[in-house]
UniProtKB/TrEMBL annotation:
InterPro entries to which the protein is assigned, alphabetical: Ribosomal_bS18 (IPR001648), Ribosomal_bS18_sf (IPR036870)
HAMAP family assigned to the protein according to its UniProt record, in alphabetical order: Ribosomal_bS18
Subunit structure: Part of the 30S ribosomal subunit. Forms a tight heterodimer with protein bS6.
Name the UniProt record assigns to this protein: Small ribosomal subunit protein bS18
Annotated organism of origin: Candidatus Falkowbacteria bacterium GW2011_GWA2_39_24
Length: 71
């Protein structure tokens, strides 16, 4: 059997309390090539920061900082 490596939360490790919607480079790391928000099991983010991340991505889309879809 192969053991899967447990991913640690990026925001907890770096002691980042709030996810900023203006930090586009960080938000793009948690979206796929089509602009969809990646799930927790893929990114390793805890549930608290996943909710904040989703809200930040949605807010950045509304402010036209991120595209809704990337084609």
């Amino acid at each position: 059997m192969t053991q899967t490596q447990v991913k640690k939360c990026h925001f907890c490790l770096n002691q980042i309390s709030d996810v900023d919607y203006k930090d586009i480079t960080t938000l793009q790391n948690f979206t796929n090539s089509y602009g969809q928000i990646l799930p927790r099991r893929r990114t390793g983010v805890c549930s608290k920061h996943q909710r904040k991340l989703a809200n930040a991505v949605k807010r950045a889309r509304m402010m036209a900082l991120l595209l809704f879809t990337n084609r």
